[in-house]
Amino acid sequence: MVAPGEDPGAGDYFSIEVVDAQTGRGVPMVELRTTGGVRYYTDSAGRAAFLEPGLMGRDVYLHVSSHGYTYAADGFGYHGTKVHPIPGGSVQIKIDRVNIAQRVYRITGQGIYRDSVLLRLDTPIREPVFNGRVVGQDSVINAIYQGKLFWFWGDTGRESYPLGHFRVSGAVSDLPEQGGLDPSAGVDLTYFVDNKGFSRPMAPFPDVKSGLYWMDGLIVLPDAAGRERMVGHASHMKSLGERLGHSLVAFNDVTEIFETLKPLDEAQELHPVGHPFDVTIDGKRFIYFPRPYPLTRVRAQWDAVLDPEVYESFTCLEPGTRYEDGAAKVQRDDQGRAVWDWKAGTSWIDHARQQALIEAGELNEDEAWINTRDAESGDPITLHGGSVAWNPFRQKWAMIAVQILGTSMLGEVWYSEADQPHGPWQWARKIVTHNDYTFYNPKHHPYFDQDGGRVIYFEGTYADTFSGAKFPTPRYNYNQVMYRLDLADPRLKLPKE
Questions:
Q1: pLDDT digits (tens, 9 = 90+) for 276-309
Q2: Quick one: 10-118 is in which CATH superfamily?
Q3: What angle do CA 316, 328, 266 make, to 5 degrees?
Q4: How many other CB atoms are found less than 10 A from the CB of residue 476?
Q5: Residue ranges of the chain whose pLDDT lies below 50
Q6: What pTM, to 2 d.p., does this model score?
Q7: Are 15 and 90 within 8 A, CB to CB?
Q8: DSSP output for 425-472
């Protein structure tokens, strides 16, 4: 044991490894709770370094729980097991996965491999316990630019004060085929940092002293001179629900910050948004913007991206009209049928707007384009944030999105697919669940796809925000967690009609 005043060494800890019974891989974010209420959480390798004075050398019961995983209950209904922790000893606990997707590691935050480091075990990333002094990061966007993978996040927390910064943070990593880690192992991030080593603001906008800046709609395309540029949409926020302004921004390769490219009128809603992706149709390249349904697009040309009036929406509204609280008119053909088509300079439609049109009597329920249903029950589901990419294994467009008001608030992740990027997206299957926890803005990383697209990777923001969770998960809360999904899993079968 550790003498008073001495630091514990690897031999002083008892190693607990929790693995997926189906794959044998360590499971991150498993809670191990003693009968006295002491909680341990497995790191990204599925390990917990146990050292509890008074409990070493005794039989200790641990309650075992984790989102989307289960451990068999005993006769009294307790889900847990008894261990006998001794210095230098170890035990392996197998848990069953309920989720179709497999949780593989945390990407951001402090202590990603904390317990593995305490146990003096190898870790796959260069900075396993503290990178860029980042404690928490919100909502990722990323793009391949100049041969690197650029990552950007929203509000970023630090260890030295409850408030961090709110002007976009960033990092780069190498792609797997260019020396980066295998995505099954992790992501090695190199942060843009300030002179104190903290992840620095990437959109400082010194002329604006207050408020938050959030970014989305990150795209890469050549400018009018043919030079590759990275462009996005920035929102200047007063609060979570109040926007002060917005603009198109571009990355400055010299200063390595985003600068205003074009201010946008506050009422302008046609601009880059979400997680864009490219589609080539009849030799023409388009950029699609999902919300999570990709029903807005623009030609992948510099002048077009800068001109909101040439953006197209796949919509039922009269061409050129704007949606205003359900008051917009639906376009109908000579037979009185709603006309869903690509229309320039016209408001986009999402589930909420479509429902408002139905309730206003402008649209019939059987004319709805957005009508995704649970492949198991047939019940309608309302999808929120997400991303879309072509999948060569399924030969379909694949969507990863979260559900509003599922069994948890924004914590249920669904998989859907369609023949065309704009849909229709008829069926979906739940692939991840989080009990009383949110997991919002999921992002599929198609450049990480393996085995011809059979295995895909996606991440999301794991946070207690909006969830009602009574106990935020230490270290994991308000950070990015990666999942892996095998698209050959028979449970992902969707109805054909």
A1: 999 999 999 999 999 999 999 999 999 999 999 9
A2: Carboxypeptidase-like, regulatory domain (2.60.40.1120)
A3: 105
A4: 23
A5: none
A6: 0.95
A7: yes
A8: --EEEEEE--TT-EEEEEEE-GGG-BTTTTEEEEEEEEE-TTTT-SSP
